[in-house]
Structure formats: structure tokens, C-alpha cells
């Protein structure tokens, strides 16, 4: 779980912060914004 309560996942070499995801939940996501440091996604 991330600092602000978002779910955290990894795909390839990317760490994804998934707003609204619950720990242990499997979600299908779409990247909506990428940065060199982190990615924000929605599902």
C-alpha cells in the first residue's frame, strides 16, 4: 500500500500506484500518466 493509501504494483521495470485498488486485489490498469520517478494509473 502506498503512502496515500493507493495500491502499488509492478509491471516490467515500472512501479505503478493504483488509486482505489485494495491490497491483494487483482486489477487491470491503463497508464494515464508516466514520469521518470513513478506512474499513475486508473482501472
What's the structural blueprint in terms of helices and strands?
Blueprint: E1 7-11, E2 14-18, E3 30-34, E4 39-42
Parallel strand pairs: 2-4
Antiparallel strand pairs: 1-2, 3-4
Structural class: mainly beta
| Helix share, percent | under 10%
The termini sit apart by 16 Å
Which radius of gyration do the C-alpha atoms yield? Answer: 9 Å
- Flag low-confidence runs: none
Provide the β-strand percentage band: 35-45%
Number of helices: 0
SSE ordering: EEEE
Overall average pLDDT: 76
Tally of discrete structural domains: 1
Q: Judging from the principal axes of the Cα atoms, what is the shape?
A: globular
Q: Major sheet: order of its strands? A: 1-2-4-3
Largest sheet: 4 strands, mixed
How many DSSP-defined strands?
Answer: 4
Can you give me a brief rundown of this structure?
The chain is mainly beta and 43 residues long. It is built from no helices and 4 strands.
Structure description:
By secondary structure, this protein is mainly beta. Helices cover 0% and strands 44% of the residues. It has a 4-stranded mixed sheet, with no helix packed on it. It is globular and about 25 Å long.
Which terms would index this structure?
43 residues; 0% helix
